[in-house]
Amino acid sequence: MKNIGKMGIHYLQRLNAANVPKDLIEKGQNRVIEASLTLIRERAMLKGELLRALGGVKASSSLLGVPLGHNSSFLQGPAFAPPRIREAIWCGSTNSTTEEGKDLNDPRVLTDVGDVPIQELRDCGVDDDRLMGIISESVKLVMEQDPLRPLVLGGDHSISFPVVRAVSEKLGGPVDILHLDAHPDIYDAFEGNKYSHASSFARIMEGGYARRLLQVGIRSINKEGRDQGKRFGVEQYEMQTFSKDRHLLENLKLGEGVKGVYISVDLDCLDPAFAPGVSHIEPGGLSFRDVLNILQNVKGEVVAGDVVEFNPQRDTVDGMTAMVAAKLVRELTAKISK
Ligand SMILES: [Mn+2]
Prior knowledge:
Layout: H1 11-17, H2 22-54, E1 60-66, H3 81-89, E2 110-115, H4 118-123, H5 128-143, E3 148-154, H6 160-171, E4 175-180, H7 200-206, E5 210-218, H8 223-231, E6 235-238, H9 242-249, E7 261-266, H10 288-296, E8 302-308, H11 320-336
Parallel strand pairs: 1-2, 1-3, 3-8, 4-5, 4-7, 5-6, 7-8
């Protein structure tokens, strides 16, 4: 189970080793990359055209799945999360309205452009440098279709780097990031991997894609995490002082003077009692209502977001964490759409 994310059929990599001409491989990979982007481009265009024809929509959430789990340092199950989250959103156990009354069945509120075919690209030997570029490009294709705004389903947390990079580049400046997580994910590199899910916010800050980075729910942090936080001017709110910080965190005003607000939710920000289906179980976390209180009360223009690190291989048999992820997606949708 542990190695499932590494079990792509690295057939072309083997061919490479057998002295197959390099340009033959590269040309084939480029065709697969173009086909991958084409499907997302066309689906985003169709949804954008639909919303523009309907009219009266300023911003609308559009789901983009990024089923990538191989940059996890421990388990790789988040590669399987996007279809499980969609299934939970639409399972019918609850009605289709968000808490404030937006109807998810209305395409003006929520659309879906599908998944970046991460496993298919890796099967063709596409490396992480290019994979991160393809994720960024896919996010930009969604943003090109006004009024769509990307709401990304991970995947492990490594995907937040290419997603935030794309959002910032497309909008032409930094955003403010609200990052809910047990971990700061700000190692310079983890086990030698600069794309590690534990390093995504170091890449984001180095790139200048965020002005403010607020990390909330932190309870697994070492000296490097704190040093890196200071180095990049990160506002780290640790769980040990949450009762003191609660009022501030439930009344955040972000995004003024920058291009907007990006919200990144790692499911392990929640106490494992609420969300057991995560790779890194870290007791002492936020309740689900704590998270909703923070998210629902954020003042600012939410331009994009992600929900990451759901590991279906660790979930309860009745899929409780999938429902938790789904409700977060629903409420973030309500926050984005207008
Ligand atoms: Mn985490």
